[in-house]
Amino acid sequence: MSAPTEIPAQTPTTTLPVRVPAPPGGERPRRVLGARRAADTYAVLGAVAGSLGLTAVLFNYLTPLSGPLGFVLTAWALFLLLYGLLVAQDENGLAVRDRLAAAVIHSLAGLVLTALAIVVGYTLYKGWSALPHGNFYTQDMGRASSLTPLSVGGVTHALVGTLEQIATALLITVPLGVSCAVFLTEVPGGYARFVRTIVEAMTALPSILAGLFVWAVILILHQQQSGFAAGCALSVMMLPIIIRASDVVLRLVPASLKEASYALGSSRLRTVWQVVLPTARSGLATAVILGTARGVGETSPVLLTAGYSKVMNADLFHGAQTSLPLLVFTLVRLPSERQIARGFGAAAVLLVVVATLFVIARVLGGRGSGQLTQRQQRRREAASAATARRFRTPPAAAPAALSVLPQSKDPQVRRRLRSFLHRGAALLAALLVLTAGLLIGGTPPARAAGSGYVPISGAGSTWSSNAMDAWTSDVLANGMRVNFSATGSSDGRAKYKNRAVDFAVSEIPYGITDQGVPDNAPDDPFAYMPIVAGGTSFMYNLTIKGHRVTNLRLSGDVIAKIFTGVIAKWNDPAIKADNPGLALPPVPIVPVVRSDGSGTTAQLTTWMSQREEPVWDAFCTKTKHTQPPCGVTSFYPTTSKFIALNGSTGVSGFVSQQHNAGSITYVEYSYAKLTGFPVVKMLNADHYYVEPTPYNVAVALTKAQINPNLTQNLSGVYDNPDPRAYPLSSYSYMILPVDRIPADSHFTTDKGRTLGAFAYYFLCKGQSEAPDLGYSPLPKNLVVAALAVVGRIPGVQKQNIALSGCDNPTFSANGDGSNRLAQLAPYPSPCDKQGATAECSTGTGGATRTSTEVSGTKAPSAAPTGTGDSSAVGADPVQVGGSATGGDGGDVSADPVSIAATSGSGLQHSLMALAGLLLGSVVILPPVVARRAARRKGEN
């Protein structure tokens, strides 16, 4: 047997760390990895200061960069660079990469928190004027209009609608979603994989498609919009979210728990019920939260399926029902500041509701597996004590039947009996709730107390929606609930044709051909009835030297060329010819048009097709909208330089934003007045520039020709020779059922009674509110003709209206039928005459109190680009999207600091030297100070 091989002594088998002996007086202090040192703080502060200073130098003096977003991004990139350089002075490469990664993560987290704080803070700021009012939480919007103070109106109806709709959706989605997730997890196979693929695809389903699906089902079943339909639409959106999240959570349940349950003899159902679901309870609660968060903030499916109502409607199965998101969407787009404040207040309430639902879900399902509540812990201890007593003292013999009696002393028996009773009571309560819901859903909507009126619904014109909003608020005191959705004239006519609403409001009659598609009239008997007059105005946002222009004047030819893209700059010679006292800025014109089917668009295009046909036909040909002659259209053709938005509230809201300088849109005069923005003074046939005040509209409509069906022919209005006439004046009308009710129609005589009473109100008393809202009241001949139409509504209770008591501003005192408002209309000032020596400086529309300074020079003729009036008010050198170059050579202005920094003076070199010194100090000083501080600390 050979001897073992010896290992050389000089070759160690293990390398041991060398421990440095402790210094005299104790052990060496250990560094805490998570502690922040002085060098770390100096590095962060130095990098922040250096990045801000260097970015300011780059943006103001060295580069043409501009804009707050670019400033922030550049400063952040420079911060990371400088921070890495500063950390590198004191750390190795691994520490530098770690610090940079931490800085990026903290920056992104701060960005998310900042965005959340801005959203919440801005919502509270904008809605703060409405939130302190107690009525905001106890009233609905039935009596609140654009002119109503904030002490009236609230969000109670929307809060109830949201809770009912989301509860309906949860009742549908939670059982189905969790059951489907259990199937996908516990029953694997080919079918489960197919279902999982469908669920994953449905998570990307656009919400509008869910609303359209449920809306189509409503139309097929000949039903109306309701809260239950909205709950079904929300469930379609929430179901795939809950299934997908629950599936992921259930997959995380350890397989050993299920195997142990099966080993003890449990069935699959019992294992799922008592092991899988309790273990995944916290994750399932999170899945429900995700689904609820998706559904509670949805607007488009609710808008299609639930409609919009200003009053409380707790009936899920009948009538329109408003939710908080829909209320916010509706109110914040209105021109009134009070309505906007109510809208943001509703958004704040929605935030509170979401936070409350989140807390409730976390309390109910936030405990982990095995964590018991105090009540469950007490029950567990009591059961354990009872089991111990049973083993220590055998129970006395008793008949088997007595073991289940209530007087049994066995704690386990009593616990089971109580559990049985509790479950029975819960089941009985659920049956009672279901029965009550079916009874409520099976009964027709109740009439208003003591009024005999049933709710009615309508949709259509945004042009006249401000008037409709005020009238529907007024009649609520009489027990009439009229729900009107301002969705556009084309949509209103389509809904009326499909019997989705009881009436429609439009400026366009049936029968026109739009883009080659005829708009055929419905088969049911109907009639047109005028409701209010007004002017289609041109609201704009333009500034000169930081001051808003409020007295802009344009001729019809210039307006047509602006909205066809021929004139693209505000300092165009044609515009300057209309405004000789203004040095208009050389910025692009941004036309904002309607994207939906609009009566306002039809009014504008009707005028252009009759008075500016060559320009209009050329534009239609260019955009390939239709073949000339283009004629009237309700869908405005657009180009890349146009902005298309939905509804009058959309286009007016865009123009009213301060940062959208240079924009102009066409909208009813009421929106500009309530928003506080000016409108264009339009040149009329007598060569006067006039705005669409109620007086000027009344004068213009004296030349309107009324067709036998009460629709309008406005050819005479466009050429009205009166100096006070506004050319684009017209009126809106209601489309309503008359004479008889078809057998398969949802319209009833009870609805006809409500609709007739509502029409009697706004044709008489309601017309007195029109001037305050920016509209012009109907003249006497149209009121008389409209009253005759009201008498044909099925179920109407005919009234003998004394016109002398209507308080209509157009009715003359002697009753001769003349238009009193037109007679009292003031004549325009001489300064508004085309070719006048000086133009008027007074404001227009909602900016009548703001004047614009003008020069007193003679109006110039159209001059080639490059010449201008140097004596006019100086224009802004910089506007949104504009440049000071390439425009009017007479408007020269610049930033004095920029001139000094680029003129080669001594100040330029001084600033550059100061910037370099600042950058060097930021890079060098922090590590030097940190090292000295560390050295002193070590010495001490």
UniProtKB/TrEMBL annotation:
Membrane topology field = Multi-pass membrane protein
Which PROSITE patterns does the UniProt entry name for this protein? ABC_TM1
Stretch list, region Disordered: 814-890
- Domain of life the protein comes from: Bacteria
InterPro entries documented for this protein: MetI-like, MetI-like_sf, PBP_domain, Phosphate_PstA, Phosphate_transprt_permease
Q: Which NCBIfam families match?
A: 3a0107s02c (TIGR00974)
Which family does the similarity line name?
Belongs to the binding-protein-dependent transport system permease family. CysTW subfamily.
Q: Which PANTHER family match?
A: PHOSPHATE TRANSPORT SYSTEM PERMEASE PROTEIN PSTA
Protein name, as recorded? Phosphate transport system permease protein PstA
State which gene encodes it. Answer: pstA
